[in-house]
Amino acid sequence: MDSWLLWSLTGGAVHATDATNAGRTLLFDIRTQRWDGDLLALFDIPRALLPEVIDNAADFGTTRPDLLGGAIRITGMAGDQHAAVVGQGCFAPGMIKSTCGTGAFVLLTMGETFVESRNRLLTTLACRLDGRPVGARSRRVLRSSWRSPCWPPLDCCVAPIPARRPAGGAIRAINAVR
Known about the structure:
By secondary structure, the protein is of the alpha+beta class. The protein has helices at residues 2-9, 19-23, 37-42, 65-68, 80-87, and strands at residues 16-18, 28-29, 34-35, 52-54, 96-100, 104-111, 122-129, 132-142, 156-158, 173-175. The protein is built from five helices and ten strands; from the N terminus they run αβαββαβααββββββ. Residues 2-87 form the Carbohydrate kinase FGGY N-terminal domain. Pfam families: FGGY_N.
């Protein structure tokens, strides 16, 4: 959807996607940051059909001038909870991002190291900035959050919790909606 939207906005000038959306296709290897040749061969998908994969914050081209009253530069792209991670600056290893919408998801940022979970968490890509991928672990905690209260409240990002918290120390939460 994202690459089609970008293609349409740029009048067909740019066929690209960001690393987080590419990673969700399961055809993109988040460790090597490349389309997986073995999977493309298995599913008989020509590499030439797939969009170029670039950083979340990058030059994605400009809109057609007739769409919005002038050409507007497109300088970022991210998918769903990944966009929330970037928007709230949850980049440091150990930061946790809760996103509540049609579902409720929790992402634990791992930094540039991708470690497989032994507890049924999905290893995913939180974002890629300046060519550096940031890994995360993800878990859906509610199937449909519009029917249930969400905790932490609304969308928030929680700073890493140290092994020992100083006396009187607090966990920092940043709400997306104030």
